[in-house]
Hints:
Layout: H1 9-24, H2 44-58, H3 66-69, H4 73-84, H5 89-96, H6 102-105, E1 127-131, H7 136-148, E2 152-157, H8 162-175, E3 187-191, H9 203-212, E4 215-218, H10 229-248, E5 255-258, E6 273-274, H11 289-306, E7 311-315, E8 319-320, H12 333-344, E9 346-349, E10 353-354, E11 357-358, H13 359-370, E12 379-381, E13 388-389, H14 390-399, E14 405-408, H15 409-419, H16 431-435, E15 437-438, E16 443-444, H17 445-448, E17 456-457, H18 460-466, H19 478-490
Helix pairs in contact: 1-2, 1-4, 7-13, 10-11
Amino acid sequence: MTAKQFYSAEDIQAYLVSNLAEILKLSSNEIDATESLESYGLNSAQAMILVGKVEKLLGFQPSPVLLWHYPTIAALSERLAEESEVKDTKVSHKATTPVLDLNAEAVLDPSIRPPSGNYELIPDPRRIFLTGGTGFLGAFIIKELLDKTNADIYCLVRAENPEAGSTKLKQNLQLYSIWEEQYNTRIIPVLGDLSLPLLGLSPEGFQMLAANIDIIYHSAAMLNYVFPYQALKTANVLGTQEILRLATQIKVKPVHYVSSVAVFESTAYAGKVVKEDDKFQHWNGIFLGYSQTKWVAEKLVKIAGDRGLPITIHRPPLIAGDSRTGISNTHDFINLMAKGCLQMGCFPNIDYMLDMSPVDYVSQAIVYLSLQKSSKGKAFHLQHPEPAPLSKLVDWLRLFGFPIQMIPYEQWQSKLVTDVTSAENPLYTLRPFLLERWSKEQLTIPDLYAQARRPHVSCQATLDALAGSSIACPPIDSQLFMTYASYLISSGFINVA
C-alpha cells in the first residue's frame, strides 16, 4: 500500500474537504479549510474514518495526533504534503511533534485560595455538588451518596433546561439499573459545562452555588484514548481549576477528586512499588493524552491542598462493571478491546494484567472514605488487590465457547492493520492508541503497558482504611467473569453466534 505519486497541499486539501463533508453529511461549500477541525465536533470514530480515507490516498497512515497539532484542513494539508515526500514518515512526524512539559502545565491560578481559618468536617452534609453524573462511575457515586447520606445531590449537567437535565441524569441511572423513584426530589441539575469558565454559570450563579454547597465530588473527565493532551486540556485540566475555584469561593468546601493510577505511568516508575502517599514528580514517558491531563489536574488539586483546601484523592484503575449485576459501560476500553479481539478471533499474547476494579466497589469505597475525618489530605488507590493475567480471560472465554487463540503481539498488530479496516470492529477507532509508536524505542502504548514496564500499584493503605467497613473488592474469578459475560451477551453487545 505505497503511494505511486506525491500529492500537493492543494490536492490533499480538496480531498479532505470533500471527505469531511461526506462524514458530517454536509456540502463541501459548508467546510472552511481555515476553520478549526475541533469546531466541527469530530468524535474519535469520525476522526479515524477521515484518517483512513487519507491513508488510502497517500499510501501510509498519518498519525491522528496531527489533527490537533495542525488543527485546520489548510495546515494539515501542508503537513501531509510534506510527509508524502518523506520516505520514513514516522521519523518526520516524531521530529516535528511539539514536546509537552507537563510540569509547566501544572500552574494553578494564584487567586484560587481558601479563606483563612480552620475547616471542620461536616459529618452530615446537606448539599453535595457532583460532576460526572452522566457518566458510568458518576452514576454509581450518585446512588451511593443518596444511600449513605441525607444530602441533596447537585449535579453539573449540559442541558437546555432543568427538566432536560433531570431527565438526562435519571436516564443514566436507569441505563445501569440503579434508579429508584425516591431519588427524584434529591437529584438537582445544575446547568453548566466543565469546559467553560465558571463551569458555564453566570458569575451570580457561580457565587450562589459556592455559598450553598457543603462538599464537592469531582469525577467528570473527558476520556478518549485517541485525543492528545491539547484536545482534552480544557475539560480535564481547566475544568478541574474551575472546580477548585468553586471550592474556595465564599466558604471552604472539601474536594474529593477522582484521579487515576495513570499518574504513575512515567517510565521512571517501571517495576517500582508506588504507594498511596508517594509523591508523583515524574511525567516523562506518559504518552497518552488522557493520562497527561490526569497528571496535571491532580497536581492542581495538590497545589490547592498545599494552600489550605481540604482535599482527598481517589485513584481508580480501569473500571469494570457492577459485580452484582454485570451491567457494564460498553463504551469503555475493556469491553471494546474484548469485543474487537473476539471479532478478530485472537488476542495478543502479551504480559498484561487485568487490574480493573468493579464499579460498585470503586463507588462504595470513594463515598465511605470521603466521609471519614481521617481521609483529609490523603490519596487512595482503588486498584484491584489481586489482578489476573490476560491469559486467564482468554481461558474463560474459551470455556464460554468462543474459538479464540492468543498469537504473538507483532502478528496481532499486523492483523489489526490488515483485517480491521472499518468501524464495524470497535478496535478500528482505537488503532491510533494500539499502533502509534512512542519513545526512543518506538514502542506502542500496549508495549508500554506491559507488566515489566508498569509500576506495582500498592493499595494496602486503602485496604487498611476500608477495614471494618464491609467494603471489599470482589476477586477476578470465573464467577465474576460469568456475571459480566452474561450481561454483555444478553444485552447484545457480544454475539455468541
